[in-house]
Design goal:
Blueprint: H1 4-28, H2 62-65, E1 69-74, E2 80-86, H3 88-120, H4 126-148, H5 153-185
Antiparallel strand pairs: 1-2
Helix pairs in contact: 1-3, 1-4, 3-4, 4-5
Length: 186
């Protein structure tokens, strides 16, 4: 029969452990903020319709190729007088991707250590051990999800394959250890 107290304890430890890991990392390694890269100043809208008095401003074509955004400067009459390429969005995206990659390299090993710790805690405290195992898996899953979009196709396959093999191996080891302990008790 399922012991709801143990299930609740396991689930609680897993969830709180995962939140704790990411909260601690955030204290020491904060995510990049959009405002650090881009100002919140928005350009006035260009005059609607054709105006013979406005000069056509042609932005640099390489701006879009370099993942930039065209920012127009407008004169008092509402006509564009200058076009510049703004790379703040690109720079923020690059910083965010680097942050997510670094988060994976920090959090994934913590998740693996928690998973292994859960395997080796005494069976007397099985609910606590299981909580750390589930918490480790949760940290591993969340950190993988955060970096997943930044990985190449091959990187995604290799990361997932490694994690799956490791978890299956640890699961087989845990089950075999449990069976040995169970036989010794008889």
């Amino acid at each position: 029969m399922i012991d709801l107290k143990k299930v609740s304890l396991t689930f609680g430890i897993a969830v709180i452990f995962a939140f704790l890991v990411f909260s601690i990392i955030d204290v020491f390694y904060a995510a990049p903020e959009y405002g650090d890269y881009c100002s919140e100043v928005f350009d006035r809208p260009m005059k609607m319709g054709y105006d013979a008095n406005c000069t056509d401003i042609q932005p640099d074509e390489t701006c879009y190729l370099d993942r930039g955004t065209i920012r127009y400067e407008y004169g008092p009459d509402g006509c564009p007088i200058k076009a510049d390429c703004d790379y703040c969005g690109r720079d923020y995206d690059d910083a965010r991707k680097q942050y997510e990659t670094n988060m994976f390299y920090i959090a994934a090993p913590i998740g693996l250590v928690s998973l292994i710790l859960g395997m080796y805690l005494p069976l007397v405290i099985e609910a606590i051990a299981s909580g750390f195992m589930f918490g480790g898996i949760a940290v591993l899953v969340v950190s993988t999800m955060r970096v997943f979009g930044s990985l190449s196709k091959v990187g995604r396959v290799l990361t997932l394959a490694f994690e799956l093999v490791l978890i299956v191996w640890l699961g087989i080891k845990k089950v075999s250890d449990f069976e040995r302990t169970k036989k010794r008790r008889k």
